[in-house]
Amino acid sequence: MKVLKLIVAVLLFSGTAVQAQEIADHALGLRLGDSDGFGAEISYQKSIGRYNRAEVNLGWRDSRNFDAFKLAGVYQWVRTIEDRFNWYYGVGGGVGSVDFSDIPGLDEGGAFVFAAGNIGIEYNFDIPLLISLDFRPELGLLGYDGFSDNFDFDIGLGIRYQF
Questions:
Q1: How many CB atoms lie within 10 A of CB 39?
Q2: What is the DSSP string of 31-83?
Q3: What's the longest Cα–Cα distance across the chain?
Q4: Structural domains of the chain ordered from first start
Q5: From CA 33, how far away is CA 136, in angstroms rounded?
Q6: For residue range 79-136, what is the model confidence (pLDDT) as tens digits?
């Protein structure tokens, strides 16, 4: 409980102590990467306020142990580091489907639900281009028994067109 109170306090005070530059109304692009294989996601960001946005990613994962298709959504707070560099953090979750059919001894898989956090850095170019590197830990909550209790460290490189 003490940890939860500390996290809430840090989030509340970080919003009042740091100013951020305005973010684009919309950004559309790709987010590439994964913790143990290759993943590609179509990524869309929509500003919700001056310093907040929602990010939705629809993607596919091809790892050593499984193939997965998933939809993830994250609410983000954006803060300025320096000039055009920002850092951001957020919380969210998603749904997906996993396939283990290529691995002997496992059944075919199924659907799952996960919770996610997000932290990253980004650079906003003079042209309407945004490049980012982020870390999105994911924790399986419900779904396929062999996958639902997994913890995944998802690392991604994003490139998005802003409009």
A1: 21
A2: EE--SSEEEEEEEEEEE-SSSEEEEEEEEEEEESS-EEEEEEEEEEEEEEEET
A3: 53
A4: 2-162 (2.40.160.20)
A5: 11
A6: 999 989 999 999 999 999 988 766 666 667 788 899 999 999 999 999 999 999 999 9
